[in-house]
Amino acid sequence: MTTIPQRFEILVVAEFSEGRAGPPTAADALRSALVEATGQTGASGYPRYAGQGMVADIDPVTRTVEALTVDGEELDYGLSVRVVPVPADGAGRDG
After folding, report:
1. Whole-model pTM?
2. CA distance 53 to 17
3. Which of 12, 46, 84, 95 suits 63 as a labelling partner, its CA being 20 to 30 A distant?
């Protein structure tokens, strides 16, 4: 049985960053938020997570964001999202 993560950190990043080595971190993000499972399912059919102005439907297996609003608005073109798992105790989270 697979346990569905109860929280993720969402990083909003520029879609293209010249010379970037490796995945973005919270320090590189234009905005980040710690989101927690709401117990609801979004319109996409995936679990809904919310926190710090972000609401997202996230596939917990692939960590794919299926839907996202930031402060009630969709993302502008040129921005993308990365999802980082957060330990249950929240330890290890950057800033």
Report:
1. 0.84
2. 25
3. 95
